[in-house]
Design brief:
heterodimer, A: alpha+beta, Uridine Diphospho-n-acetylenolpyruvylglucosamine Reductase, domain 2, Uridine Diphospho-n-acetylenolpyruvylglucosamine Reductase, domain 3, Alpha-Beta Plaits, 4 domains, 5-stranded antiparallel beta sheet, 17 helices, about 20% strand, globular, disordered C terminus, B: alpha+beta, 2 domains, 8-stranded antiparallel beta sheet, 17 strands
Chain lengths: ~500, ~350
């Protein structure tokens, strides 16, 4: 499709004013600028038009219009995503759902909250706090990110080994198809007849439908939460301690590892009292009834000590516990202060391969001349290497992308995946060809077409074309060459 | 490990080319409930074995024809278990059948359902292609979540050949408590307690008695029992097993039994006949002579759905179509995975309608 076939900004704006107020339609470069990137700021694209509907009816009108005019639609929540999933389409409408932000219903007895997609993750917990309840998934961006975006990405957080991902904590979705039809899926009952569309839509990165309402499950706040901070001389020892703990039957409420670079950066940033001389730091949380926590903490301490922990500190009070976590949750921006730019990776690996994976990353870091800090959701194998670079130095971003690609392919090689929680977006689309075969990718395209035959919802994201993979296949073989610099990145 | 994958793929491919419908079979333990009427059988029972099990990863990969009891024994030897306590409903139940059926047991509300623990699948689609989705790690958002889409699809979207499941450690001890209450009081209490941080892992109400199971370290259970009150049930383990495997007298009635999944806060349904409540109020088993239309309408009104458990038509177990555009989406999806409509035709029951 040529840009000339798409109505101009002004034509689209004028048409949409039939259904939306003027303030909800942005067509000038200055007003659209804040939307040209999401949390992955290395990728930028000015959207054709931005719309900010405030009701489901307005969303429906936008979708029907775009469908009729064959205009691509990219949905956006709070714009905190880390894979470029909300990167605008140059010929498309960027559909922000941030103004649909009502908490529709709180039912403390049923432990459910019905919200519009623009409601912030943390706002759900705040809405039920007085009832002793909370919403469990807690991505690091939880003060800003929206529940609609969480559904699109199937977001996790530092507590998901015990409490699950977004998928495990939502009951029901109300969505609009591209043609503007309302579809209700899932239910407040424990199961539904028919196929599991909740599973299919959660994490579908805006390719299948637009969420207009989410019913989430909220759970009782634990009576007690305690966290241990353990220091180790090597990351391998810390990794072994994690495996032993889980094999011993303990499911920590949170289990996070940071290497020394990440620890030092976080300490400089939030002054959490982290041991800056340690090669690896583990944060290990237990929650539940006081008797459960007491029992678990004792067993955790024994295992940590047996596996070479050089120092163990239990947070003395709630303030210190929150400080320990604040450092971890701020690890990305903290590492971000060490260099002009950083690139975050999201691969997941079987925990037992941690030592060898970190060793290879360290080798490659030297070889590429790029520093890498490692933050690790150790409980569930989700690794976040952060590559430090300077976009101002010619060629450095290119090198960074190449190193990132190698690390992701390594994750697949050891039996893991290219993305644990950030999504594929535009960023990891080449690595999808490494993780999946042609037949699987064809099935993904079939699923996409079952919802959106014209391919107008978030085109070019999440699922690579087979042609792209055929070209990318060569990329995988010639590891050390820059893959196809002549191809557009997205 | 036993059996070969290739002959299974070939059988499906030939059936696809000849447009010959197939009935996928595992142990047959749930065929009283759901069973396609297709005459040709695709038998998974010889395709067995544990592919990979690493207890410290909390992950196991199993071939679909493996007996569920074989898997459960292996996990037990390592102090682990399937979190959702799947009902076998027969010793011959297979792991693939368990996942295709998607049925969970007493622990469902505390820990999650089958689909919550499926991490990956290997499957044959309706064209005989050998496909893999998901993986062996707990967090994975690459591609659409096809693995979980297979759970509860009763084979209508593909033949499961291998599944990867997340497992959990077994709790060190358990305790069952009991109270004599009316149904309305019991439902109220189940919902209240579910909103409080007690280690409750199962609940039921039957014949005037509310029962809950607590699990965790012994000291925690004793402390919770002091707060909750009630009297200890000594044969607790047997009760939950009987419930899970449907061996209680309730399930022996000659009357039709309905399984009604409803919003847990729904009050007593008021249907005539016996009711057995599970899952904190979210699941109601009702033995009654009411007409189909009435039971389905009542379940819908309670935010859920009903299924005739005993005495229904296994070839068409879910006759009620979903509302509006969702039916069309079901049909589109069926075509993606099974374009010739040869895999367990007739299931789940409303596609052809």
């Amino acid at each position: 499709m040529d840009k000339s076939e798409i109505p101009s900004e002004l034509e689209i704006g004028q048409a949409l004013r039939q259904w939306l107020p003027e303030s909800a339609i942005l067509t000038t470069p200055e007003s659209k600028r804040p939307y040209e990137t999401d949390g992955l700021s290395a990728y930028r694209q000015m959207p054709h038009v931005v719309v900010l509907p405030a009701t489901e009816k307005e969303v429906q009108a936008v979708l029907r219009y775009c469908h009729a005019q064959r205009i691509p639609v990219v949905a956006r929540g709070a714009g905190t995503g880390l894979s470029g999933g909300a990167l605008p389409h140059e010929r498309g409408v960027l559909l922000s759902l941030a103004r649909l932000r009502n908490i529709v219903q709180v039912d403390p007895l049923a432990r459910t909250v019905r919200v519009q997609p623009g409601v912030r993750n943390l706002a759900i917990t705040q809405a039920v706090d007085a009832h002793g309840l909370y919403y469990a998934p807690d991505p690091s961006s939880q003060i800003a990110c929206s529940i609609g975006g969480n559904v699109a990405e199937n977001s996790g957080g530092v507590h998901c080994l015990k409490y699950g991902l977004t998928l495990h904590n939502i009951l029901r979705l109300r969505v609009l198809t591209l043609t503007g039809e309302v579809v209700e899926i899932g239910s407040e009952a424990p199961d539904s007849a028919g196929f599991d569309f909740m599973a299919l839509l959660t994490g579908s990165e805006g390719l299948l439908a637009i969420v207009t309402e989410v019913t989430v499950k909220v759970i009782p706040k634990p009576m007690v939460s305690k966290v241990i901070m353990a220091s180790f001389d090597t990351v391998e020892q810390a990794g072994d301690a994690v495996a032993r703990m889980i094999a011993a039957g303990i499911i920590p409420a949170g289990l996070e590892m940071m290497d020394s670079l990440a620890t030092r950066a976080a300490e400089d940033f939030v002054h959490a009292g982290y041991p800056v001389e340690a090669a690896a730091v583990l944060l290990c949380e237990s929650d539940g009834m006081p008797e459960v926590v007491e029992d678990e903490l004792a067993r955790m301490k024994t295992i940590l000590e047996e596996n070479g922990a050089t120092e163990l500190r239990v947070a003395r009070d709630e303030a210190e516990r929150l400080r320990f976590w604040a450092g971890r949750k701020a690890a990305f921006p903290a590492v971000g202060r060490l260099a002009p730019d950083y690139y975050c990776i999201d691969g997941t690996i079987p925990r037992r391969r941690l030592g060898e994976v970190l060793r290879l990353i360290a080798d490659w870091s030297l070889k590429y001349g790029l520093e890498v800090a490692n933050v690790f959701h150790a409980g569930d194998g989700n690794l976040h290497p952060l590559i430090l670079y300077d976009a101002g130095v010619p060629g450095q971003f290119h090198k960074t992308e190449e190193l990132a690609g190698r690390i992701l392919e390594l994750c697949v090689e050891v039996g893991g995946t290219i993305t644990g929680e950030h999504g594929v977006g535009v960023e990891k689309i080449n690595q999808m060809c490494v993780q999946f075969g042609e037949d699987e990718i064809a099935v993904f395209h079939g699923i996409k077409a079952a919802f959106d035959p014209e391919g107008l919802l978030n085109p070019g994201k999440a699922i690579p074309t087979l042609q792209r993979c055929a070209e990318g296949g060569r990329m995988h073989v010639h590891h050390n060459q820059l893959p196809h610099p002549e191809l557009p990145r997205f | 490990m036993h059996g070969e994958l290739e002959p299974l793929c070939i059988q499906v491919r030939q059936a696809y080319e000849a447009k010959r419908p197939l009935r996928i079979r595992g142990g047959g333990s749930k065929s009283f409930l759901v069973c396609s009427a297709a005459p040709e059988v695709l038998d998974l029972r010889l395709y067995t074995g544990i592919v990979e099990y690493e207890p410290s990863e909390l992950v196991v990969t199993v071939r679909a024809g493996t007996l569920l009891i074989t898997l459960e024994r292996l996990l037990e030897e390592n102090g682990q278990m399937l979190a959702f306590e799947p009902p076998h409903l027969g010793l011959q139940a297979t792991v693939g059948g368990m996942v295709a059926a998607g049925l969970s047991g007493p622990r469902r509300m505390a820990q999650g359902a089958v689909r919550d623990f499926v991490l990956g699948v290997r499957m044959i689609d309706g064209q005989g292609r050998d496909l893999s989705f998901g993986g062996r790690v707990i967090k994975n958002v690459a591609g659409f979540d096809v693995s979980r889409l297979m759970v509860g699809a009763w084979g209508a979207l593909g033949v499961l050949t291998e599944v990867t499941l997340k497992v959990i450690p077994r709790a060190p001890s358990q305790l069952t408590l009991e109270w004599s209450l009316s149904e309305a009081q019991a439902l109220q209490r189940m919902n209240e307690w579910a909103g409080q941080p007690w280690p409750i892992t199962a609940s039921s109400y039957f014949q005037g008695r509310l029962r809950v199971r607590l699990e965790g370290p012994r000291k925690a259970l004793e402390s919770a029992a002091v707060h909750l009150g009630g009297k200890e049930v000594l044969e607790g383990k047997g009760w939950w097993m009987g419930l899970r495997e449907q061996q209680l007298d309730f399930f022996m009635t000659p009357k039709p039994i309905w399984r009604m999944a409803v919003r847990p806060t729904t009050g007593p349904l008021g249907l005539s006949g016996q009711t057995l409540v599970e899952w904190g109020g979210g699941l109601r088993w009702v033995a009654c002579d009411h007409g189909h239309a009435q039971v389905h309408a009542m379940a819908r009104e309670a935010g859920g759905h009903a299924q005739q458990w005993h005495g229904g038509d296994p070839a068409r177990p879910f006759p009620e179509p979903p509302a509006g555009a969702l039916l069309a989406l079901h049909r589109n999806l069926k075509k993606v995975f099974d374009p010739a409509g040869i895999l367990n035709p007739g299931l789940p029951g409303f596609l052809e309608g």
